[in-house]
């Protein structure tokens, strides 16, 4: 029997999920990130804006942004395997940066105009982990920048990929983010029901906001 890989080693843990389940069968897969794009449009994000997709792994947001003419997209993920899959599908040197890092221990060396996160933040059940994430959000976001963040909603799963999660409604998620960015404003919300490749439904809460110049 193959021993279980501990979530205390997140890089190996998430590599294992992709390798065992398959990149098109993991529960978070979606062929087109419609809600992400809707909120990016609502924020009027221009293609000249540098974008950071946190936990982007093998997601298709980067493909859509490149197709729209975005010139500076960074995909950050703790899974090197997921990043390799994306790079094989979309090798765009000079446009896309593939960043293998854990968002909690990573320290930004630059700033971006948009921070996008679909389904990383809800895995941070410990207050200390949320504090590290939000500190990096503050460090990484340009003055005048924007954010789009999605988590499981109330009524969603208590666990995902074998790990516990923390669920949020619009108010609770906004309060968490604005505690780190007190000058920011949440200006858009969405409720989404994601259908997994296996046919299960997962309700999500989305918020989008901006930091003033």
Give an account of the 3D structure:
The protein is 30% helix and 27% strand. The chain has 213 residues and is of the alpha/beta class. The chain has one domain (10-210): 3-Layer(aba) Sandwich (Rossmann fold), CATH 3.40.50.150. The strands form two sheets. A seven-stranded mixed β-sheet has the order 3-2-1-4-5-9-8, sandwiched between helices. It has a two-stranded antiparallel ribbon with strand order 6-7. The model has no long low-confidence stretch (mean pLDDT 95).
Number of DSSP helices? 6
Number of strands: 9
Portion of residues within helices: 25-40%
Secondary-structure element pattern, one letter each: HHEHEHEEHEEEHEE
Straight-line distance between termini:
56 Å
Q: Which CATH C-level class is it? A: Alpha Beta
Strand content: 25-35%
The CATH homologous superfamily is named Vaccinia Virus protein VP39
Total separate domains: 1
- Order of strands, main sheet, comes to 3-2-1-4-5-9-8
Largest sheet: 7 strands, mixed
Q: What is the CATH-assigned architecture?
A: 3-Layer(aba) Sandwich
CATH topology: Rossmann fold
Nearest-integer average pLDDT: 95
Unreliable runs: none
Shape: globular
Structural class, from helix and strand content?
A: alpha/beta
Q: Please state the CA-atom Rg, rounded to the nearest Å.
A: 16 Å
